[in-house]
Amino acid sequence: xxxxxxxxxxAVKVEPLEPFRDLFIAQLGALGFESFSENQEGFEAYIIKQxxxxxxxxxxxxxxxxxxxxxxxxIEQVNWNAEWENNFDPIEVDGRVxxxxxxxxxxxxxxxxxxxxxxxxxxxxxxxTTHMMIxxxxxxxxxxxxxxxxxxxxxxxGILAEMRGASRVHGIDVDTWCIENTLENAQRNQSKMTAxxxxxxxxxxxxxxxxxxxxxxxLLADMKSYVHALKxxxxxxxxxxxxxNIPALRQAAEEQGLxxxxxxxREQWRxxxxxx
Length: 276
Fold this sequence. Notes:
This protein is α/β, with parallel strands linked by helices.
């Protein structure tokens, strides 16, 4: 029997709260924090003790013009599945997509009913960045397309692309538990989506459509790889950044030969569409 992991709770205070609470949550997610709980002053973040690095945490919470502080404590083992079950409601997107967990009731009348069990993976449709990506896919004819889901998390975007007719869908993520979760969710939705562990170096072949819902630094660093993997005339969707980040992202993409098409806005978050 494997030893029960010990978790660290980091209580973070942020001022101003918005949009920086979401930004810091995304930053900590990239550091391996597995679960978050928002409060009026900021949020609590949880990570396995052996994966905790105070110096990395400190760096992730530094932002010019933002006052942040944190406290660290060791906590007893938590039933994480029970925790997210208590906070995970079904999601409806544009009256067409219905995303539920196994413990939710089915709801008829939707084109794309999806069964997603997030466990520790990002991408249930709750977050604004994922919601906008789902909207982009609903507007895109992916019939016969080969689709790449970068930072696949739960696999929700790739699974939806296949539901909309994609012929081949592959996901890539840097976290092993995301790959496992993607494959589990693919099976739940009778999807043939595949997934592999890694970053941009794991991309093989070319694709008609690429979804990249990752933080800004990764998008900028891996832009050349994304564009290289995109077929001529193909479409790429970027998400995970703010309005002030768009000029830098557009410049990096246009330098690689992409053309800007449009933007979606959801609260403080932005998502853009570009073509090759």
